[in-house]
Amino acid sequence: MVSIISREKNGKKYFYLKHNTEKRQKEKYLGLVIPQNIDRLKKEFLAEFYNTEWNDKIRNIVTNYKIESKKIPQSIKLKNFESFGISFTYNTQRMEGSSLTESDTRDLLIHGVTPAKKSQTDSIETKKHYDLFMKLMTSKKESITKKIVLHWHKEIFGETKIGEAGDIRSYRVGITTNDKIEFAPVNEISKRLTEFFLWLKKYSGTNYVVLAALAHYKLVSIHPFGDGNGRISRLIMNYILSYHDCPLMVIKNSERRAYFKSLEKSQLNDDSIHFLKWFMRYYIKSNKQYL
């Protein structure tokens, strides 16, 4: 938590922002009075604090990943994508309640064996998600647009969510575990999506892992679809990582509690830093071999 502290000197009181963890502390001078935009300044200060923690590690991970990637033959890269795609599809589906186990998912995607006594909807969406992921990873990359994302949604859910796949929702949605979180009202979805894709196009930062995390957070917080928002957001996350030659990431189903809690905390406080903290630490831990 960022705090405001004051120090007196020569009879005057000077204000500072302060934040610390177990390992380090940082302060930022505010002035003789607390600015009116103090909430925004706190958010910016906290983002600066943690960016310092992440940037060098992310830079090393991406650099070493690119060096290693150049040594790998194309045929092996394809096999790596297939293996990753299976794991990614299993975890992203399972996180949303799919009945398919990891073994079911492998049998379906590798051998074409549809699991018995399991939801047909889950099997169809699993296969569609994997096929789309592989197509995105092996085709020429395009800038992400609203039209493309709507198409992705239709690709995955066209056979299971008839009348909704590829379309913006026309009703209110929320989170059953937390009724304090509200997503974009129906009459604001189009406007929020326009802002989102404009932000994505104009992003000027150099840490593309942060971009992937923020894109995930922003889209899932708009919640433009009736269902499938998490899966589409995680797909966008990995598409951005691939687009900028960064290691891809699987958010494992076993980590779903911490993942969802970080999302909820950011949404409740209208501050992406809580999700970013979890995401960046998870990403660095997942790619420690490149450090």
Could you explain how this protein is built, in words?
With 291 residues, the chain is mainly alpha-helical. It has two domains: 72-134, no CATH class; 141-291, Fic-like fold (Orthogonal Bundle), CATH 1.10.3290.10. 57% of the residues lie in helices and 10% in strands. The protein has helices at 38-70, 74-94, 102-111, 120-138, 146-157, 189-202, 208-222, 229-243, 256-269, 273-286, and strands spanning 3-9, 12-20, 25-31, 174-175, 178-182. Helix 1 (38-70) runs parallel beside helix 10 and helix 7 (208-222) runs antiparallel to helix 8. It is globular, with a radius of gyration of 21 Å. The model has no long low-confidence stretch (mean pLDDT 94).
Q: What layout of secondary structure does this protein have?
A:
Layout: E1 3-9, E2 12-20, E3 25-31, H1 38-70, H2 74-94, H3 102-111, H4 120-138, H5 146-157, E4 174-175, E5 178-182, H6 189-202, H7 208-222, H8 229-243, H9 256-269, H10 273-286
Antiparallel strand pairs: 1-2, 2-3, 4-5
Helix pairs in contact: 1-10, 2-3, 2-4, 4-5, 6-7, 7-8, 7-10, 9-10
Q: For the largest beta sheet, what order do the strands appear in spatially?
A: 1-2-3
Q: What is the residue-mean pLDDT, rounded to a whole number? A: 94
Outline: globular
Count of individual domains: 2
User: What is the makeup of the main sheet?
Assistant: 3 strands, antiparallel
Helix content: 55-70%
